[in-house]
Structures are given as C-alpha cells and as structure tokens.
Amino acid sequence: MAARSSLFALSLLAALPASAGTIRIADDLGGFLPDYAYRFSRMAMDGDRVVISGRCGSACTLALIYVPRNQLCAMPGAKFQFHQTSGPNGGPWLRRNYPPALVRWIDARGGLTAKVLTLEGAELRQFVRPCDTMVAGQ
Questions:
Q1: 64: CATH
Q2: Nearest-angstrom CA–CA distance, 69 and 72
Q3: pLDDT score recorded for residue 45
C-alpha cells in the first residue's frame, strides 16, 4: 500500500510543471481530498496560475484553500460545487480551512449537506477573480 501511495505521489509530482505556468482545470468532479490538497499546494508553491473552466466540484474546491487569490481565476461559466464529505472528519476540516466568507456563504444556504451547493456568476466573483483576456486567449 505504501509503495502504491508513493507511486501515486510521484506521478502527481511528475505531472506538475517544474516552473510557473498556467494549469487549466475543466469540469473536474473531485476525488480524494488529500490528493487534491497535495496537487493544489504544489501548484501554489510553483507559482502556477490556475484557471477554472466549467465545473469544479467536491475536492476540486480545495483550490479555494490552497491556491492564492492572485494565482486563481475563473472563466465565464465556471462554477464551484460543494457538498458534505463522505468521511466524518472532512466537513469540520473544510469549515476550518475554507475562507471565512465562503463558510458564511455555505452556511447561509444550509451548510454542507447531501444537497449540492453551486457557486457561480456574480457570487463566484466575490471569491475568485475572472480570468483576464491574456489567459482566456491561451
């Protein structure tokens, strides 16, 4: 199991650029929280610009925790989707680590439950800046 985890971590590391670049995330439904935490923290450390295009759901929303605001942008039509985690510890961890304004937004809509909450449009721009035309044209 440890060897398999190490191989997975190495494959993630190899997939990331060695220097700052632009990484597009399109229609990502999420997955295992620790994998996304690692991936986004590496992008942040490398100075990568992260462009969200389409849906960023579940664990993908960890971009809002790990990627600095000046490195994260959203294309028109982008949306973040939130729901309760499958494990007992995920929800409290997210509440402690999401930006406080985002926690208030989630709480105002009933909190993290089985119902999917979608953050998009003008509401999304409160948390993620729109991508400029330079990024949009790449």
A1: 3.90.226.10
A2: 5
A3: 96
The residues that bridge with 73 in the sheet, in sequence order, are 51, 129
Give the three-class secondary structure for 17. coil
The whole domain housing 26 covers 2-136
The whole-number average pLDDT for the span 66-74 is 96
| DSSP-assigned states of every residue in 45-60 | HHT-EEEEEEEEEGGG
Q: What CA–CA distances, in Å, run from 78 to 51, 57, 84?
A: 9, 11, 21
User: How many residues are recorded in the chain?
Assistant: 138
**What domain count does the chain have?**
1
d(CA 138, CA 127): 23
Single pTM value for the model: 0.79
Phi/psi for 85 (5° steps) reads -85, 160
Lowest mean pLDDT among 3-7, 29-33, 55-59, 132-136: 3-7
Beta-carbon contacts of 3 under 8 Å, excluding residues fewer than 6 positions away, are none
